Records
---
Amino acid sequence: MKHKTQLSKLSLFFILITTTLTGCTGGEKHTARIEEQKKADLITLSQTQIVSSGLKIGKVTDTLVNNFLNLNGYIDVPPSHRSLAGTYFAGRVVAIHVKTGQLLQKGDALISLENPEFINMQQEYLEARGREVLLKQDFERQQLLANENIASQKELQLVAADYSAAAALVSSLRAKLELLQLDPENLSPEKMQARIQIHASVSGLVAGVFVSNGQWLSPETIAVELVNPGDLQLRMQVFEKDLLHLITGQQVIISLPGDTSSIAQGLISQISPQINMEKRSAEVIAKIRTPLYEELRPGMFVNARVAIANHLVSCLPSTAIAEADERFYALLKTSADTQGQSFRKVEVVPGLVFGKLTAVEFIEKHDSNADFLLNGVFQLIQNQE
């Protein structure tokens, strides 16, 4: 029994020794494989190759970049820059002088209307104006007589009342003619007309024409819409969780859907204090400062980015990063002598692009003062593959 126990202990000792040796051998093999892989990833260039190819060597740069809040909205104009043209008095459309997209100046003719009632209104004004002149003369005469105690004050008061009523009627009829966009001062029996023109009240572009020749245009119908694109703005609906990041004066970068290049910039000018209870959002308006009128039009849907915070990111030139086998690599300088320099392929995760720089994250740590090949990386890695 004692002999068996000694044999068992001896067997266990040899098993432990064997396992330890095997484990050491496996670890050495793993380390050897890593070293072999690092050697395989090495690219050695002579000094002549570096100079003749114009290769550059430099360090990772820390770049201050913005965090952006991505929003969307549509281009609009302030209510003061939008005009809906119609008529206060019904008439038949006999001419349309504008077309959609046409640039107009204030006072340009939009449409012409015709209605015999327009003549009656002009006639009533001329008759009332003539009566006012007579009553004014009579009032001035009665006033002189009353001052000399020739006429009674009662007669003066009756004439004054008639004159005041006639003046009020003239003022009323004059205002109606002005609403017809006729000039009462230049009106005479020879100049009465059944046709009038509706003129633009503001300068701008014709956004829409909503009438046709021969149509009866009533006061509640809009004939032409005008917009002045000289003061464009961006309207956005922003969720309440994002409103905390916004303040007036923040810069807004505007781009078209599917295109990240900027076509305009603006500043946030208004933030609504009221949250829409159903949508859980509020309206934010940005005034556009540098629009390209050929590309931006009222009603156009656009994307917007608002810079909300700054932070540092590690960046390399975009030419220092190359893709191979669906992974991205940079070339880390490992050694250098008079004959040349060696670089090792290290994996990186590219991020946002800032002009000619690309933000990168390194899979493995490296010396913060390490040098990298800054250009020609794609060709070198492709040749190695």
---
Amino acid sequence: MKLNANPQGIRELNILIKISQNIISTLQYEKVLQIISDGMAELFEIESAAIYTLEENNELILSATTPPLDPNMPESLRRALLENHPHVRNAIESKKPQHIPDTGKEKLSPSEQNIVDLRHLQSLLYFPFIQEEKSIGVLILGTCNKTRNFNKEEISFGQTIANQLSVAIQNTLLHADLKRHKENLEKLVHEKTLELDKTIDELKKTNKELISKNDIIFNQNAELKTALINLRNTQAQLFQAEKMASLGTLTAGVAHEINNPLNFIAGAYEGLNNYLNSKCIDDKNEFSVFLGSIEKGIKRISNTVMGLNYFSSENNSMDEKCQIHFVIENCLAIINSKINEKIEILKEFSPDELIVKGNISKLHQIFLNLLGNAIEAITEKGKIKITTERKNNWIITEIIDTGKGIPKNIIGNITDPFFTTKEAGQGTGLGLSITYNLVLEHNGKLEFESEITKGTTARVLLPTFEKHE
């Protein structure tokens, strides 16, 4: 099963592209496994496929099958012990594919025989999913209508694809872990906020009684209120610092993991492109379309990885020369997956190179937060326009959305710590507060204008680099 310039090779290439596109379109773990199971069955032109994932206690979980599992199938029936499936165990422990040309002539365990009889399996292939020298599961492909003796080239090709798909599985698991971590953090912040509000209410009652006694106690109460506000702000900053440190570590790891296989893909693309250019192939134009898609995908992933690296930088220096257009483009690459087809991004950048002195990681945080808020504000079809200009000694960036807008009676509070218009558990109320403080760290200004149902303008004013000099 070797990709070449014949109809079979083009069919295989189209299937691989379809698998990749379907995986990119979702971050749901179960859907990714089902896409892999269906796609590999189609690629090998067989009737049955299954994916078992490996738990820490050497327990196997039947996570996807082709044809798909019954959604009402009890979870207990999807679990099995690794020791009862020796061929799966051999594939996982050896990290090499296993092949049974004829199940009728192979010695099988009782558990394996039950599955073979139930699904009428004739020939079987076992491909381990390997990630960082560790097996995380196994893909089983089987024929039902007749036996089939897979050759070495087919088996090697299948394992190569399984190795690449294991990266997608691992990245999906990382996304699921990050989502759970985020939800737990938001829940914790909400609980602590309620506790803090309760404490503040109790202090207010106590303060009311103290105020009635004398002016001295009244002054002490004012100082206490200030201390509570400072404490709340400090708590918000500590929480955000801890969150950004964890997120930065995870982001840097994910960027590294993406960059390694991306280098292999880029190298393979260059080799294939050079090969096609050196050969006289009749349908070279067809390959040019595929190569163009691969090149476009490589550039898009490279831009995202570069943006993640800048975002996760641990450098705290405020003396970096930061190109505003470069920062904005990186942020757009990072949140590209959130910009659906209903949102149109318009850019009206100054023709001049706009440079400020500051911290490039913190500038990424500022514009990521503001762009994220603009995206969330648009519930239906809308636009986000980004403009930049140099005016006097300021570099001005405006992010203008056509979203639902902010009521005038609360727009002055949106940068306060823990202030949020979202439902309980849906947000921490720290995003714009942290953004405001980061802008102040750069000796800048953050302004908002909004009109209900028409949209919001977020304006960031930063001193030009020359002003610092």
